[in-house]
Design a protein that fits this description.
globular; 25% strand; alpha+beta
């Protein structure tokens, strides 16, 4: 099978609709509020979908409609649009296939964590709190004493700080006060503003290109032409290109399609 790795690369064929895909094993340690799981955050341009493969848990979400708690079990499919703060809770062995709109944008920074307001207000302080050693690369050799690696410890600290900010937003929303959530939305938009030119390039090479290809195929068929069918290809990967990357919600197995 043929493969390619970079959006816009010669011969590159994206996944349907230009989505991204990864396998996720949700963190199994306890956050400051006593719940086990991942880091609350939102995406500004990307819809995200979960297809639950194993274990049990829930996804907590917070929007201008309020707080929701959705149970997850094998076979569950749930998705949410940009602006949805989401947090995975692990009741045991939770494993998920994650589909992300606009493949490449989340990796380019389309995710803002729910840190407290003082952290969100300072881009340098936010970056220091959000960035993991080595960019979250998989651990070569975990410590022999059973303690978490430096990268994993940093991922847990990042998660715990975001949970503190998330609790503040949730409590206010439960009381009918959505002002803090609106403030968070504005802070998130300010933080990602420097990245927007790069995001547009990725969007044009990925999801937009996929839509434009479909439009061209429809035009060809409407004109009685079928030449594009002769260019059919089969692409794939036998296994993830990277296993155990430290993500916001857990350990990720990723594929080099972004």
């Amino acid at each position: 099978m043929n493969t390619s790795t970079e959006p816009g690369a010669p011969g590159m064929v994206p996944l349907p609709g230009g989505v991204g895909v990864s396998q996720l094993r949700v963190y199994g340690t306890t956050a400051p509020d006593g719940l086990v799981g991942g880091t609350p955050h939102l995406h500004l341009c990307c819809t995200e979908a979960y297809v639950v493969q194993a274990g049990a848990g829930a996804v907590q979400t917070l929007t201008m409609s309020g707080f929701e708690h959705t149970e997850l079990r094998p076979g569950t499919v749930v998705w949410f649009t940009p602006g949805t703060i989401h947090r995975l809770v692990n009741h045991g062995g939770l494993e998920i296939t994650v589909l992300m709109q606009n493949s490449g944008l989340p990796e380019a920074g389309d995710a803002v964590l729910t840190f407290p307001p003082a952290v969100l207000a300072d881009p340098q302080r936010y970056a220091a709190a959000a960035t993991l050693p080595g960019g979250g690369a998989p651990d070569d050799a975990p410590p022999s004493d059973g303690a978490p690696s430096a990268t994993l410890a940093a991922a847990y600290a990042r998660r715990d700080l975001a949970v503190l900010g998330f609790e503040r937003l949730r409590v206010a929303a439960d009381a009918g006060d959505f002002g803090p959530l609106q403030d968070f939305h504005r802070a998130a938009a300010r933080l990602v503003a420097p990245h927007l030119p790069r995001w547009r390039e990725r969007f044009a090479a990925g999801a937009l290109r996929a839509a434009q290809d479909t439009a061209a195929q429809l035009d060809a068929l409407a004109a009685g032409r079928s030449e594009h069918l002769a260019a059919a290809t089969v692409r794939g990967f036998a296994a993830p290109g990277e296993q155990g990357r430290h993500g916001m919600c857990g350990l990720l197995n990723t594929y080099p399609i972004r």
